[in-house]
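Box 4.2: Ligand-aware structure prediction
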Amino acid sequence: MTQPIVEMRDITKTFGSTRALRGVDFTVMPGEIHALLGRNGAGKSTLVSALSGVTPADAGTIRIGGTSVTANGQSYAAAIRDEIAHVQQTPRLFDQLTVAENLFLENPVVRKRYGLVSHGRMISRTQALLDEWRIDIRPTALAGQLDAGTRQLLEIMKALNRGVPVMILDEPTAALSNAEKRILFDHIRALKLRGVSFVYISHHLDEVFEVADTVTILRDGQIVTARAPVSSLDVETIANLMMGQATTRSERSDTTDATAPPLLRAKGIRIGPAHEATVDLEVRGGEIVALAGPVGSGKESLAMILAGHQTPFGGEISSPRGKLPVIGLVPTDRHASGYVGILGVRENVAAGGLDILSGPLGFINRRKEQEHVGRLARQTNVIASSLDQAVGQLSGGNQQKVVFARSLCRSPDVIVALSPTRGVDVGAKEQLYALLRDLAAKGMGVVVVSDEEDEISQLANRVVIVFEGAIVDELVGDYSMKDLILRMEGVA
Ligand SMILES: Nc1ncnc2c1ncn2[C@@H]1O[C@H](COP(=O)(O)OP(=O)(O)OP(=O)(O)O)[C@@H](O)[C@H]1O
Ligand SMILES: [Mg+2]
C-alpha cells in the first residue's frame, strides 16, 4: 500500500484559554485532494498552520515526505520549504511590490549569479504565468491596485508554481468569481494527475464535491470524521457533522414596502468610463435586492456607488424621502478594507460609528460603546474570547461577522453587503440570512452582491442582472431557481 505523504499525530494547540486543537491525527495520501471541513473556529486554519510550520503547535509529531519534525517549539517551516506550500486564509501579497516581484522574489529560477535577480527573466516568466492562468494584468502592475479576486489568484499561482508535492489551500475561492474558480480547479486537477496532494479548506460544500476525493471534519478542535471518501457523503450529512446538530435551510420572505417612497434612487448612473450605458435603480424599505452578473459586469461598482463609497461617471443618487439615508457597507475585500487586524472587536465595530458613540466633546462614551458593540456582536453571532480580542486572531468567519457588526453600528437605513457570507460556515450563514431578513422586516433596505445562486435565491425578493454596466434583466417575487441560474449564466 502507498505511504501517506503527510502524517500528523496527536497535534494539540491552545491560544490562552482556547483549546484550538485537542489531539488531532491527520493524514494525506499522494495525489489526493483532501477537504478539511468544519465550522468557523473549528481549528482548520490552526491545523494547517501547524502542518506548514507557519504557527507551530504545542505538541505532536509531523512527517511530510521524508522529513519528520516535532510540532512544538522551534521553527521547522524552513526544513519543509521544499515539501509544502501554504496559501493562507489572510492574503500575504505585498501591496507596494509589482505582480512580478510578488510572484518571483523568493523563487530561485530568476536568480542570476551572485544572488542578483534577472528583471527581464522575472517579467517574461510572469507574463507566461499570467497567460497560462488567463489573467489580464501587466506584470509591472502594483499588487495593491488589483481587485480581491486577482490578488487571490496570484497567491495561489505563486504557491502552485513552486512545484512542491503538498499544497495547502485555505479558502482559496473566497474572493474568486465562478470563472476564476474554474481556472483554479483546472490547475488543481492537472497537478493532482502529476501526484501533487492538496489540503483544501472551504465553506462551499459544492466545491468539495467538485474537486475533493477525501473529507476530514473537525469540530471544536477534534476530528469527528476522518478520511471519508467524498462519495460516501452528501451536503446535508457534512453540514450536520460540522455543526453537531441538524441544520435547516431557510427560505426567502418578502417584506417589501411597495407603497412607501423608495429609500434610495439611482438615476442615470454611469458605472465606469468603459460603459456607455446608464443604470436606474430604486431600493425600497423592507426589500432585499440582489445584484448579480459576471466578473467585470460592474455589479460591485454599482453597489459601491449606491453605498456612497465610489463616485459614478455620471448620474446621481438621491432619496425621494429627503435627506440621503445612512448606509452600512460590508465591503468585498474584508482583509483590505473590512477590519484592522491588530485592533480589538470593540474598536473595529465602534469604528463604524464613532460619531454616535461620542459625547459632545468628541470623547467616546465607554459605557455606551461597550453596550452598543456588545449588542451588535451578539446580533451578528461573533465568537471571540472577549470584545478586546484582536480581530486578526479570530477565525475567518468571525472576522466577517465583525465586519457585519461594524456596518450596522450607525443603525443604517440601507445596508449594502458584497459577498455577505464569504468565509462563513453553513450554520452561521443561516444566522446571517436571518439577520438580513430581520433587518428588512424592520424596514431597512438591503442590497447584496453575490455570485452564489443559492444565496440569492434564499435572500432576494428582487434580482437585478448587471451586464457591461447596464441592468439587462430583473427577476421579481416568485422566481424559480432555474430562472435565476439561466439569467445568471446569461443564457435566458
Ligand atoms: N493567533 C491566535 N490567537 C488567539 N486565538 C486564536 C489565534 N488563532 C486562532 N485562534 C482561535 O483558535 C480557534 C480556531 O481558529 P481557526 O482559525 O483554526 O478556525 P477555522 O476552523 O480556520 O475557522 P474559519 O472557518 O472561520 O476560518 C478559534 O477559536 C480562534 O479564535
Ligand atoms: Mg480558517
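In the box above, the bound molecule is adenosine-5'-triphosphate. Residues 264-488 form a domain with the Rossmann fold fold (CATH 3.40.50.300).
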